[in-house]
Structure formats: C-alpha cells, structure tokens
Design goal:
The structure holds three protein chains of three kinds. Chain A is mainly α. Helix content of chain A is 96%, strand content 0%. Chain B has one domain. In chain B, α3 runs antiparallel to α7. By secondary structure, chain C is mainly α. Chain C has a domain of 142 residues. In chain C, α3 packs antiparallel against α4 and α4 packs antiparallel against α5. The longest helix of chain C has 43 residues. The chains are: A mainly alpha, B mainly alpha, C mainly alpha.
C-alpha cells in the first residue's frame, strides 16, 4: 500500500507538471507576442512618420 | 457516364506514363525486396515463427513500398505546372482523385504480385489457405492503403516538407485497414479457416474502404482548390 | 470581457479542484484491490473524457470553417486541438503510471492506450502540417480536412483494436452497467470532469486570444511592408 502511495504521487505530479509546463509555455508565448506586437506597432508608426515627411 | 469517362481518362494517363517510365514500380519493388531482406535479419526466418507473423510482415512491406508510389502520385504533376492545368480542366477534383487512385491501385497490385513470390520463397511460406479469400483480402487492403495515400498525396502536394510529412500523416490513418488485412492474412497463410469471430476483420476492411473512399471523394475538392 | 471569463473559469476550476482534492485525498477510502494508486484515476478519467470530446469539438469547428470561411473557426480549432493534445498526453502518462502498478507493465497494447497513442501521432502530424503551411486559408482548409479524417479514423481504430483481447479494466462506472464503484467514490470523478472541462476551456480561450494577437501582428507587418 505504501508503494502505491508513492506511485500515486508520481502520477499526480506528472499530470500537474505537464499542465504547469503547458501553462508556463503559454504565458511565455503571451509575453513574446506582446513584445513583438509593440515592436511592429512602433515600426509602423516610424514608417508613417517617414512617409509624411 | 461522364464522370466515369473523366476518371478513366485520368487513370489511363497515369498508367500510361508509369508503364513508359516504370520509375515508381521499379523503386517500389526494389524497396519491397530490400525490406524483405532486412526483416530476415531482424529475426530468424524458420518456418514456425514466420507463420505467426507472415501476415504482418507482408502488409508492412506493402505499406512501406506502397507509400513510395502514393507519394509521387500528385507530386509528379508539379513539374511544368501540370497540376494547375489539371485543376483548370473540366475534370472535377473527385474525378482527378479517383482516376489517380485507380492508377495507383493497379500499380500497387502489380508490385504486390511481384513481391509475393519473393516473399513466399524467402520465408518458406506454404499457401494452404484459400487463394480466393487471400486475393479478396489483398484487393480490399490495397484499396484502403491507396485511398488514404492518394488523398494525402493531394493534401501535401504543395507542402514544404512533403517527403517527411507524408509518412507521418499516412501510417496512423492506415492502421485499421492494415490491422484487418494483417489478421486475415496471418490466418490464411496458416491455412486456418476464417471463422465466424474473424468475419469481423472482413467487415472492418470493407467498412474502412467504403467510409474513407466516400470521405476522400467528398473532401478532395476542398483540398485541391486554392 | 473575454479576460473576465478566463479569470472566472480559472478561479472556479481552481476552487472546485481544491475541494475535490480534499475529498479525493482524505475522504474517499482506498479501493479494495488497488490501494492508493486508484486515486490517479480521478485525473486520468476526466482527462481522457475531456480530451476525447475536445478533439471532436475541434473537428466541428473545422467543419464550420469550411462552411463559413471564417478564420476564427480555424483559430478555435487549432487552439482546441492543442489543449486536447496536451491533456491526451496527460491521459496517456497517468494511464501508464497506473498500469505500471496494477499490471506491472508500463505499456499494455490494449485498445484504449493504443488508440490514444495513435491519436497523439495523428495530431502531432496535424501540428506539423500547420507549421508547414504559411497561407492562412490554405492552412485552415488542410487543418479542417485533417481534423475530420483523424476524428473518423480514431473511432474506427478504437473499435477495431477493441476486437483484440483487452487488458484495460472493464467499465467501472454505474452508467455503463459494469462493476460499479461504491456510490461515495463516484461523485468526485464527475466533479473532476467539470474541473478539467473548465480548465481546458480557459486554456483554449487564452490560446485563441494569442492567435488573434498573432494575426494582428502579421497584418501589421504586411501593412508596414507596403510602405
């Protein structure tokens, strides 16, 4: 029975580990996307300003 | 009737082209022979053991060698924009697909027919079962492989990594057909009668063929246009 | 608005999960023959059921794209498939851990585990294909078709492997007319299904929002290049 407890915790741990990894990868992707969005927006603004000159 | 005529025209074109160049058949047959050879190193081909896995062996060879043929099916039209020409012609996507599928089927059966004697010799197989049933299994199983392979050839024709992607996509899809064919082939090679509880494999093969043929015909237009 | 939904779902899921964990870990007695490892089932089963359902939901989303040519359906389908894939992976691994204890083997080649493995392979191909196509509508079309084929195939694969001898425990839940679990033990199972459903919906919504950011970036780039 004790051995089974051990494996039960392995099971739980693995399951939630995968969920955590997935959630963290989503969060990282979110940050990267927002940075890129800001960068591209700034680039477009610069180009618009150039074009107006 | 027009549908049939268009389909057969495409099939005839592909077959004619293949008979003249013989590229696919040669490559596929050579590959089949090489696999049969490699398998002989993987285990000791004494006759007892082989009887148990003969079915599996045969269909793995057919599946791997077949994918070579099926992969090229739509890819060969990329040269000189032939694919665009075909899509622009009055032939519908379904006719194009069915024609190519029929041509592939004939070529694959030819390769299998040539590989079977070699298989029999290499592994000392004695065909004690019903030949007619074996032929039926081969026809049904090969059609299943052909339908899936031709459809995925159409899907991946313009993809960057076509050669890498096609096997990855195709083999999992073929599994039910392969399973049914393998089960039945193993039984027939061993000379056992196909009992009532094994009828289900025949039904599986037929169902698989019907379902995926219909699905392919319905979806191929979506896949090709654009 | 969407952010509020995501937060609400996550909080609800989290709260329900905490309450459920309390029940699962402390109140439910050990199962007669399996001992504590049985509790992994409380996660394995919800993951299996929800991920399986999500694959079919994604298929319908793909079909809707084919009907209406609206790329948002494709974005939804991709997000749903991604989340379903992750939870199918969890299903497989928790199942393997359970199997290791109960049957002594990591892998049993029985219908359900094999079908799920095949499912993972097919959807891995799905994601690979999405990465190989750049044009959005073409990618959406191919994805929808692949999704339809995979979903139909997974049903056939399942049924066909079932006709092999199976080592997977027979139906245990009451509604399937099987052995039946003791009444007190069933409830957390269904609550956990709800938990995972909410969690997965939240994740899908997050992914979808990221995809709309992605397409906004792409269109801005195209606009910038037009100068």
């Amino acid at each position: 029975m004790d051995r089974n407890f051990e494996y039960m915790f392995y099971g739980f741990t693995v399951a939630w580990l995968i969920v955590m990894v997935y959630v963290i990868s989503i969060a990282l992707r979110e940050r990267r996307l927002r940075d890129e969005l800001d960068r591209v927006k700034r680039m477009v603004e610069d180009q618009e300003r150039e074009a107006k000159k | 009737m027009n549908f049939l005529r268009g389909t057969l025209a495409v099939a005839a074109k592909d077959l004619r082209s293949e008979i003249r160049s013989k590229e696919s058949i040669n490559a596929s047959l050579a590959f089949a022979l090489v696999i049969l050879l490699l398998f002989s190193f993987a285990f000791d081909p004494t006759s007892d053991q082989v009887r148990e896995i003969a079915g599996g062996l045969l269909w793995l060879v057919f599946a791997f060698a077949g994918t070579l043929i099926l992969n090229r099916s739509f890819a060969r039209e990329l040269v000189n924009d032939c694919l665009d020409a075909l899509l622009a012609s009055p032939i519908s996507g379904a006719q194009l697909f069915l024609g190519k599928a029929i041509a592939n089927f004939v070529i694959l059966i030819a390769v299998e027919a040539l590989a079977m004697p070699v298989f029999t010799i290499f592994y000392n197989v004695r065909w004690t079962g019903s030949i007619a049933l074996m032929v039926a299994v081969i026809l049904l199983g090969t059609w299943g492989l052909t339908v899936i392979g031709t459809l995925f050839s159409a899907m991946t024709v313009n993809l960057r990594l076509r050669e890498l992607m096609l096997p990855m996509l195709v083999y999992p899809m073929m599994i039910p057909a392969l399973m049914g064919a393998i089960q039945l082939s193993t039984l027939l090679v061993a000379g056992e009668p196909v009992g009532a509880d094994n009828q289900i494999w025949f039904r599986l093969l037929v169902a698989f063929d019907v379902i995926f043929s219909l699905l392919a015909l319905a979806l191929v237009e979506t896949v090709l246009v654009g | 608005m969407r952010t509020k939904i995501i937060v609400l779902l996550s909080v609800l899921a989290g709260g329900l999960l905490a309450w459920n964990l309390h029940t699962i870990l402390l109140r439910v007695p050990d199962e007669a023959s399996q001992g504590a490892i049985f509790r992994v089932f409380y996660f394995h089963f919800p993951c299996a059921v929800t991920s399986f359902t999500l694959f079919f939901v994604a298929m319908f989303s793909g079909l809707l794209y084919l009907r209406k040519q609206d790329l948002r359906y494709d974005a939804a389908a991709a997000a749903i498939n991604e989340v379903a894939f992750t939870f199918a992976l969890i299903t497989l691994i928790t199942g393997m851990i359970w199997g290791r204890i109960i049957w002594g083997i990591w892998w049993a080649w029985d219908p359900r585990i094999t079908s799920y493995f095949i499912c993972l392979l097919m959807y891995f191909g799905y994601f690979m294909m999405r990465r190989a196509v750049d044009e959005p509508h073409r990618r959406a079309r191919l994805s929808a078709v692949l999704s339809i084929l995979a979903s139909v195939d997974i049903v056939i694969v399942w049924k066909s492997i079932e006709w092999f001898r199976t080592q997977h425990p027979g139906p245990v839940l009451e509604m399937r007319g099987g052995g039946g679990m003791a009444p007190g033990m069933e409830a957390p199972l269904f609550w956990n299904v709800l938990v995972f459903l909410m969690l997965e919906t939240a994740l899908v919504l997050v992914r979808m929002r990221q995809q709309s950011i992605q397409s906004e970036i792409e269109s801005l780039r195209r606009y910038a290049h037009a100068f």
